Amino acid sequence: MAVKEERGSEFLKKEFLEELNLGEDSERECKLAEDGLPESIWETYSSFANTDGGTILLGVKEHRDSFTVNGLTDKQIIKYQKDFWSTLNNQNKVSKNILLNHHVRPIELRKRKVLRIDVPAADRHDKPVYIGTDPMQGTYRRDYEGDFLCTEEAVRAMFADQRDMAIDAEVIDEMGLDALNRDSVKGYRILFEQLHEGHPWNVLENDEFLMKLRAVAKNKNGELSPTAAGLLFLGDSYQITKVFPDYFLDYREESDDKAVRWLFRTHSNEGDWSVNLFDFYFKVTNRMDDDIAVPFVHRRDGMRVDRVEVHAALGEAVANALAHTNYYGRRGIVIVKKGKELTISNPGTIRITKQEFYAGGNSDPRNPNILKFLGL
């Protein structure tokens, strides 16, 4: 039965989605399913589970601005449900069943029955959700154009995110304390002492201080080695890239004039600074701070003492990028300032659902120790 409405196709689409309690931007996949359970349903199941979830509707066809509801017979619905659950619970066909009974149910639309399958976003402990027995050949994700096969790099990143142990807590056994940049360690301690006057850590020797910070830990031989967090945050460039070969940091200020490539740029391939996260954070935030207009600015000993909320927001945005990055990813952290617009991007998918993200209170950082360094 084709859905027609005098009020226009745009209104029709909105009305249809409201009846399903779906938003305009909700992920959905409509399949007529006239000749059996579509084989492509499993790619969609995998992609929804590995991304932000979504709804599959069997017995419906979606057009640009309208929907056609053909519906399913009672016999089809019973068979499709049986076939769906049978395949979903077969680990040789699908790696993980993340659905409950209420996620698969027949509903009525325009006096026609359709089968609705709501696929939630999988918890990071369950990802990747893949088809068959080879995750490298059967893991899908969702983008604006549909389902696409994940790269091996993306699949490995999902497996890495399954671990409850912080990724940045790993001890780099083959390195010693000389992998850390002395000036960066000294600079961090000076800042720490200024912010935490009288703190018992202030009287510790460097190695003890770094152990308390979790920047270093004892390796398999009982000697001190940097953790991944310590190396990234306080290490030297050539030592960092031994462990993280695709490590890259880039900050640039672009111009509206196409003849000017950029107004200012600093990046981790320059070779004239440590290129660790500690030094990058302050190079970037100090540069951004100078461009923020502050009313009635007061300075004391050359230092700005009046700050506005934008300073804190930008600092927190950069800190979040550093704490949530997958440092084994290829793209690196890129910060672009163009006029009054600032874009911060980093490799690594979000580890919580969109709903949890917007609700707040559960950040689940990929690198909690790096976040701790910045918080202190």
Write the layout of secondary structure elements.
Layout: H1 9-19, E1 28-31, H2 41-50, E2 54-58, E3 60-62, E4 67-69, H3 74-88, E5 104-109, E6 112-119, H4 135-138, E7 140-143, E8 146-149, H5 152-161, H6 182-195, H7 206-213, E9 216-218, E10 224-226, H8 228-234, H9 237-243, E11 249-254, E12 264-267, H10 277-290, E13 299-300, E14 303-304, H11 309-324, E15 333-338, E16 341-345, H12 354-359, H13 368-375
Parallel strand pairs: 1-2, 11-15
Antiparallel strand pairs: 2-6, 3-4, 5-6, 7-8, 9-10, 11-12, 13-14, 15-16
> What is the helical fraction, as a range of percent?
25-40%
Strand order of the largest sheet: 1-2-6-5
Number of strands: 16
Given the C-alpha coordinates, what overall shape results? elongated
Beta-strand residue fraction: 15-25%
Q: Topology as H/E string?
A: HEHEEEHEEHEEHHHEEHHEEHEEHEEHH
What is the gyration radius calculated from CA atoms? 26 Å
Mean pLDDT: 86
How would a crystallographer describe the biggest sheet? 4 strands, mixed
Summarize the structure.
With 376 residues, the protein is of the alpha+beta class.
Describe the structure.
There is one protein chain. This protein has helices at 9-19, 41-50, 74-88, 135-138, 152-161, 182-195, 206-213, 228-234, 237-243, 277-290, 309-324, 354-359, 368-375; strands at residues 28-31, 54-58, 60-62, 67-69, 104-109, 112-119, 140-143, 146-149, 216-218, 224-226, 249-254, 264-267, 299-300, 303-304, 333-338, 341-345. The termini are far apart. The strands form six sheets. The protein has a four-stranded mixed β-sheet. A four-stranded mixed β-sheet has the order 12-11-15-16, covered by helices on one side. Helix 10 (277-290) packs antiparallel against helix 11 (309-324). The protein has 376 residues and is α+β, with helices and mostly antiparallel strands. It has two domains: 9-161, Methyltransferase, Cobalt-precorrin-4 Transmethylase, Domain 2 (2-Layer Sandwich), CATH 3.30.950; 167-375, no CATH class. The model is unreliable at 1-11 (pLDDT under 50).
